[in-house]
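Researcher: Good morning. I'm working through a list of sequences from a screen, and I'd like to move beyond sequence-only analysis. For each chain I'm collecting a predicted structure so we can compare shapes side by side. This is the next one on the list. No need for commentary yet; just the structure.
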Amino acid sequence: MKVITHLQSELENDMLSKVQHQNFEPGEFVDICYKNYHEIISLIEDFPWNKERDRIIIALTNPSITIEDEKGNYLKLALFFNGKYVLHYFDKEQHLYTKSFTDYRGAYPYIQSFLEEGKLDLKDFKKEYTWNQHNLIHFATKDFHYFLTKGKVRKFMWRQNFASLLCTSIIAFIVILAIHRLQYATAFFLIIVSSPFWVFNLLLSSNYYNYAKRKMLYMTKGENVFYYGDKSAPTKYNKEDILKVVEHAVRGRSVANGFSFLKIHFKNGDTIKIPNILVNNSELRNKLYMCNIILSGRPYMKKEA
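Model: Good morning. Structure tokens for this chain:
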């Protein structure tokens, strides 16, 4: 991957441009590189606007071309309602402004001002009030490499074992009270009954951690090619080669509720398993939207040979 420094950008008077196509997820962009005004205009002219409009659902993540300056301001030209186009300006204070056009060429003066003067006259723009929508995810580029970190492991362990810890604490209190009152049979009974619950939970958490601790996944919604496997040398896969996807999870009340993994079967007979300690299943299902996902039980992951 070619690394382009901010110094190069300043010398050439360019800004970072990037492209989104239909079915991309928030933060997913391609063709990320520095361009000047004329190069960005060529990019806009060559973009397949009419083709991308087919079956579109208008949102902030849509077929578009985004320009980003070094201060954290974004200008995005995108498809809009009723055959129109829209220019989104999202500033570093995370305020959102929009202006629509019947012809995308109407946005050119604003794009030129943003690129060459580093500012935008907002008197023609409408300020959008979008509290609690976290709009930055639709403009900033996201890193789609998934691997375990200490923070991710702690969050997963806490989420999966909170109920177990709560129940164990309550039972421990009752056991101490029973022992204090010399009710040893009651205390022994509670320990025997409660042990399988939290022991199983901890074993399953350990199972997921050990399986995923050396793995890395790179996958986006818009790209067919993805990588998964050992962090030092992940294997390349293609979504078009997928035969079926099986989600191993338990529904309803169970000590295993919240543990799940997707097992992907390929046409050549290969399989891979991606546990939700690495990436949550709802996000993964969104990336595999073109696949038929079958629900199964038994979320325990067998150790690889």
